[in-house]
Amino acid sequence: MIDVEGFIPPALSPYVMPVIVILFFIAIGYSIRFFIDSYVMKWAKKTKTKIDDIIVKGIRTPLILIFTAVGINTALRYTNIPSGIKYYVDVAVFVFIVFAVTFSAARILVSLMSYYGSARKGIKPVIPMLNNAIKLIVYLIGIMVILDFSGVSITPLLATVGIAGIAVAFALQETLSSFFAGLYIMADRPVRVGDFVKLESGEEGYVSDIGWRSTKIRALSNYVIVIPNSKLANSIVTNYYLPEQEMSCLV
Fold first, then answer.
1. Could you say which DSSP state residue 40 is in?
2. What is the pTM of this model?
3. Per-residue burial over 88-105, b = 16 or more CB atoms within 10 Å of its CB, e = otherwise
4. Which of 25, 148, 174, 203 is buried deepest, with most CB atoms within 10 A?
């Protein structure tokens, strides 16, 4: 390995070496990005699925920032900065890297969810809500990692979040039940907007809307029946438009 410091005057070494180290890591980042753009991206575009394209793009985005942060952290070894300041710089660099990785992970997961939702028309209305939930969870994980690295005990925080989650789940039990039932209805599609259905309780009509909490059925007399999704998912429903709209009857 070439000793770069041997070519630099001792008086300039604390100033020149950090710059060289940072530029070296930035060059590595650009080299990896060039390899991804030139080879990996082209390979991903040839595949039938877009999942690999989404993952590759998500990994590619924070590369330069991460390698720059690592370069700054490594360059500190060649400076005369006091150890106290180095500690805070180390923490700042770690926080920056965690933020970059967290942002990239959230972006990949949100893009995958949007891609999945675009293939299933019924689930489209709740995609923005699911994307926000994914971002919130990923960012919370990133914050907890940062707090743990900084020496802050996250055990009480996790306990508090767990207790609060249980309390909220009990308070919103019916709402959450209808919400997840709505996701099931939108994903499995036992009923669809426009279908003519009959419930086991006797109501019948055309499905006019499927929301995240309730489903609306327009009766033949032109009034609307609003059914919580949790009740609809647990009831027997006759869908006259499945498997196809044409029907046969005995005369």
1. I
2. 0.62
3. ebeeebbbbbbbbbbbbb
4. 25
Going by C-beta distance under 8 Å and a sequence separation of 6 or more, which residues neighbour residue 35?
A: none
- Strand-pairing partners, residue 228, are 214
- Structural domains in the chain, CATH included, are 4-152 (no CATH), 182-239 (2.30.30.60)
Residue 213 and residue 229: Cα distance in Å, rounded?
6
* Band (249; pLDDT cuts 50, 70, 90): low
pLDDT tens string 163-198:
877 776 676 666 667 677 777 777 667 888 888 888
| Integer angstrom CA distances of residue 126 from 8, 118, 175, 211, 218 | 60, 11, 15, 8, 22
Under DSSP, is residue 130 helix (H, G, I), strand (E, B) or coil? Answer: helix
Q: By the 8 A CB rule, do 207 and 217 touch?
A: yes
Residue percentage of the chain with pLDDT more than 90: 1
At residue 150's C-alpha, the angle toward residues 147 and 154, to 5°, is: 35
Count of alpha carbons within 13 angstroms of residue 224, beta-carbon side? 8
